[in-house]
Amino acid sequence: MSKVRLGIIGLGAQGGAYAGFIAEGKVPNMVIGAICDTDPEKKAVAAEKYPDVPFYDNYIDMLESGDVDAVVTCVPHYLHPEMGIEALKRDVHALVEKPAGVYTKQVRELNEFAATKPELTFGIMFNQRTNELYQKVKQIVDNGEIGKIRRTNWIITTWWRPQGYYDQSAWRATWEGEGGGVLVNQAPHQLDLLQWIAGMPKKVYSNVKYGYQRDIAVEDEVTALLDYGNGATGVFITATHDIMGTDRFEIHGDNGKIVVDDSKKVTIKRLRKPESEMSATMSMMDVAKIFMGGDTDDLYEEEVIEFESVWGAQHSAVMENFAANILDGTPLLAPGSDGINGVALANAIHLSSWLGKEVELPVDEDLYFDELQKKIEEEKLNPIKK
């Protein structure tokens, strides 16, 4: 096999974009093997754009057709684990979209089944992991350049969505159809990057607003306090109603600080001595000079790096890496098993707000599932979307 034949399940915005990337040659080690969608209109679209590509209206039929070596699941979140399992059952490699699922119980089932098929490639579309900026940040943290982490702070509110966005489909922004709001739709990449770079917190306490500025049942505003269990803390803020949104990620360590602005610029400040040593040895005269705006060159060095990002290149890079793993064993940038971590964080944030208290990770999976079912039943009795 020189190229992987990818089956695209769901020819919506994301699936359509992936088909375009492959057709345009942006994923050199991959071709479109087949397309599947339950919408008859998508069949006409596929016939016009990709006349030589087989089309299916049932994804099981596509998995069993022999037309595909792998699939990508561009479908509502609840279906990702089920489709991943069904593909792997039939010895078809699986690339699941983010998030890996809505709740960790179903994602764990996917991970456990995938573990029984080590010969198959199981990946997740965490395209931000291919972003050179975040790779650089992770490298700095992993290398210990800023020392032990003391605090993380990410405000990511660049997800402005008007009411019309939510009204365009009945399933969107519902507990039954989507399983949540900004935490499961827009912010999974940041939740993944946060734990990928800084590690998983041990406890979460959250203040979450449901339908705060939009006529929806799910969350459109989130503030979460993270406890890493070793003294370090974090704050994660996200929302979909800020038209002038902010994207700023700070990591403060014993020996320095990293600030990411707009996912484009990284400022690294490396202390010349650990903060604890400075605190123990500096005279108050030296401290006064700092407070009065004195020269800081003796305290820390500063490095600023700016990155350019081309939309679509990151998604193509994940697909190319996924195909390379199938073809020659190239290590995966985003193993599918990692998907459970971001889902666990989202579940913990939800559960803390539902219970009105701090929750420990990993969360009680059965409790989360039961509380989610309550939300679904409440939504059926009092639907916001008619």
TrEMBL record:
- Where in the numbering of this chain does the GFO/IDH/MocA-like oxidoreductase domain appear? 134-258
Q: Which domain of life is it from?
A: Bacteria
Q: Which Pfam families match?
A: GFO_IDH_MocA (PF01408), GFO_IDH_MocA_C3 (PF22725)
Q: Which residues form the Gfo/Idh/MocA-like oxidoreductase N-terminal domain?
A: 5-117
A GO molecular-function descriptor: nucleotide binding
Q: Which InterPro entries match?
A: Gfo/Idh/MocA-like_OxRdtase_N, Gfo/Idh/MocA_Oxidoreductase, GFO_IDH_MocA-like_dom, NAD(P)-bd_dom_sf
Q: What is this protein called?
A: Gfo/Idh/MocA family oxidoreductase
Q: What is the native source organism of this protein? A: Oceanobacillus zhaokaii
